Amino acid sequence: MTWEPVFVSCIQSFPSGKKALQIDIEKITKTFLYDKKPGHVVLKDISFAISPGDFVIILGESGCGKTTLLNLMAGLEQSTNGPPLYKRGKC
Fold it and tell me: What average pLDDT score do residues 67-73 get?
């Protein structure tokens, strides 16, 4: 089975009319290349889920990949193992 990076989001509606976002990240890897040679692996096979109502903090020391992860989620960077697949739909 081949794993591809996936960023899944779906908007869930509540009776109050408010909407919430579900985010699932699966198998994201990011490697920076130096002089066209394999370089530093910043993120490797990162997977997690954020459910509506969750409060999430990304915590870590300098250089561990926090900003890289956020940039991947925002679409500002591409993962090394291919572009994230964005799926939107009903929860």
Answer: 88
